[in-house]
Amino acid sequence: MRFFPYDRPYPNQRAAMAGIAEALDEERDVLIEGAPGTGKTLSALVPALECAQREDKTVVITTNVHQQMRQFVEDARAIADEEAIRAVVFKGKSSMCHIGVDYQECQTLRDTTRSLVEKQEDREELSEQANALVERMREGEDGAAEARTAVTDELDQLEEELEELREGNICEYYHNNLTENTEEFFQWLFDDVRTPEDIYDYADRRQLCGYELLKEGMEEVDLVVCNYHHLLDPNIREQFFRWLNRDPEDVITVFDEAHNIESAARDHASRSLTENTLEQALNELEDADDSRAEAARNVLSAFLGALRETYDDALGFGEREQVGDDWHDLSIANRDRRDELTLGFLDRYEGRGIDAEVDLALQLGKRLDREYEEAYKDGETTTRKECQTLQAAAFVEAWMADGAKLGQHPMCSVRREGGTEEMYGRAELYTCIPREVTETLFEEVHASILMSATLRPFDVAADVLGLSDPKTMAYGLEYPEENRRTLTVETPALFKSEREEPRTQEKLTDVLADASRFTPGNTLVFFPSYAEAERYHERLTDRADVTDRLLLDEAGTPTEELRQRFVDCDGAVLLTSLWGTLAEGVSFDGDDARTVVVVGVPYPHLSERMEAIQDAYDRAYGDRRAAGWRYAVEIPTIRKTRQALGRVIRSPDDFGVRVLADKRYTRASSEMGKYGVRSTFPPEERAELVDVSRRKLKFAMLNFYADHDAYDGAPPSP
Fold first, then answer.
1. Maximum distance among all alpha carbons in the chain?
2. Distance from C-alpha of 430 to C-alpha of 329, rounded to nearest angstrom
3. Helices 275-286, 388-402: crossing angle, 10 deg rounding
4. pLDDT per residue over 588-600, tens digit each?
5. How confident is the model over 304-359, as pLDDT tens digits?
6. Are 645 and 454 contacting, i.e. CB atoms less than 8 angstroms apart?
7. 251: part of which helix (H) or strand (E)?
8. How far apart are alpha carbons 543 and 510 in whole angstroms?
9. In terms of Cα–Cα distance, which of 445, 344, 438, 322 is closest to 59?
């Protein structure tokens, strides 16, 4: 506990740290659930850092929530104040590049610049040799003149090579890294816990590449703070560990908001190829003077034709008119045979064997890719061209090899071209079971700590992510129970048909109006969709008691300004979606949000992807366990609800009311089969759920807040 920066950790923090320390000694993974504001991060970091220093490991803590990244920096600084540790905060190249090039261009520029500097160093060394040989010539040494001629010939050749490199593309910032003394940077870097923004500003003022300097400074540090993709993307992870100068077994990973790993890993594992890329690849092949070009054309033209035919056939009556700027998914999978795109591809293909010709296309693609890199290095092109043939052939290879595997779902999507009437398609291998990405990571590293306020049930989390025999710990709110009340309101179950009923809408509007009127502070209201939030924003606008305090979060709009307006208000009501950015990773302290209301059960939108995930889990774990519904729908839905409830009561002195407005949360839900969700809550949270009728909600809230002397003056009249 010598790293702990506070005098009195909560009792649960001490127990958590002891349990985590024991698990790390045993090289076991840890699943830990703790309520918001109870110090999960420090509970994980303290034993992880102590183990790392004792066993010569590096701790990598990661999140996909920007606000949490800032909190990690504060926690790391608090620890650094107590104990000398070397910590860095790492972001991707795109957010730290001073000249705005993409990854491939950066790699080429880096290689070219390094070659230039190395040849400049060789020239200096040869010049010194030539000068020394002049002295030896003056002394009459035999062979000195002949040796000097050889050196000067080599110098002349080197000058020609340098001239060619100077005419090519280099990065002046990285050139300065290699030619200037950068010791001052590293002293500055480890004098505190620096953010990527700090590093960018420091390096930019000195015309240095902060990203490359940061990579150099990561070797064998104690702690790294980074984003999910540095660990979940297998290719990036391999490079990342190399920058750390660590083998995977020398790394301890800590995942915050670990309930998000499943969807993040799924995104990293899924692969796609657009019609545009296929067209560009075929155009590229027209100019390729190579015998392998015909084989590549055979494969890619057949796949392009099949893609177009497949999405054209899959568009139902009137569906074509619904396609807009966003990708519109189409069903092409078959239960008992390969998908329609594969069948169309096999029917169209007329080459000498798909596997053989795909391999030839890959060989040609790699050759073209090398040529593009050389052209960029030599300055023949101003950008590093991407090889479309290589991308397309690699995808077709994966499609044919993996498309029928369990957990891989072949899909086809269409969208409009830049708002025009032109439509184009995309083939996608959608990864339904993310453990294919995560299991290898968790097997390779020393140990992993996965923490969240909504990680239970642990057996499902372990199954989904591929964790073997993890240690599990769960800690509820340590704050006084009398400071919170969770009310389940007996409004109708808001199934789709019920949501359209005028009488249901009127009842729910009354509930929301009462909840806001009896809240001494702000009220945060979550809906299953932005459309529902907009619906009740319009209805509440007609209510004179709340209309001047209403705020609406709309899809696709930045939320930080809206959040700030909300917390700056007194008695405001903010309506948003449970699937938006305000539902997790955001704190609302004190009066910023005294009451949170969750309207309805936020089941994910029924889609091709969701059905594919359910089917994959059913096939992987067996229909008898109803794994598809439980793993893909029920548990993620309740996690989403619990995350929303966690936006209030963020400290021991805080207090507030959490309202669940839907019959499916009440005791009566036991009669509703799988649609009743009360039993899915953890036992201690379920025990705190108090059923109230919609007419008595205001009395329950009035009594609670009056007991806490929360009203400024006389309380509202019921």
1. 112
2. 11
3. 130
4. 888 899 999 999 9
5. 999 999 999 999 888 888 898 889 999 999 988 999 999 999 999 999 999 999 99
6. no
7. strand 251-255
8. 9
9. 445
